[in-house]
């Protein structure tokens, strides 16, 4: 940069020298125009020097600054929408599977986005691939972007096949349903079992006697919300007490009204399919953080996202899915079932 300025000074001298000599020799009238010329020449030289001075180089370039991430805890930068437990979340704020805080008995709903696979989704929710297939009537691993998957927290027994075991004997041992075992494990009735194979028995039971703690009441440790839930049918009878996922069976005539047990929002409304044995069913999310489930329906009268009020008719009683007669299987997830 210094050599450039010296060149400008030298060229200025050779230009101004003759101009000053002319100004002395010419009449006074011409002085104004000469000095005006000289003034403009100095301005031009100054501008040229300033321009050279500001020319960017390694000495005067501004330092680059790294951009700040809007969310340092983000697990993804995709702008997809994920729904967990009926709540819409940006995938940028969804915590990793290891840190998500969901109750074990809560039904979750997940919207498939780009890059998802069934094994990855299963790992995210801590369930098996078969659990997702079974609950969503899937025969393979094919899923599509935007597809809504219901994630059922399946309770049951995992059995390792030993010598002499058959599917029928396993079902009998754990009081499971043979057809349900076949469907869940993607087997047919003629399947040959090998020693070491693992079979899952949905809603299976192990017959053991458990002593009650001293001084304990033996009641459920789940919270009680007295008066919060209303009976989901009018009349009828209870045909089975607490079983499965905190559910009871209430029977009445085919097509009887099914009522919302409490105010809330519909997060699942299945109008076709086996759906893990529930058949046609509805799940409602409530303001106290609990969920209620209404299954084996003959007709579903609400849709996902609908807000419902306590006592509103949401469906009709039926016998779809794993059912041996007309009834409503009613579950409360996250609290004691008062019925």
TrEMBL record:
Any GO molecular function: metalloendopeptidase activity
Lineage top rank: taxon: Bacteria
Pfam family, one: LysM
Domain (LysM) ranges: 108-151, 157-201
Protein name in UniProt: LysM domain-containing protein
Lineage, opening ranks: Bacteria, Candidatus Zambryskiibacteriota
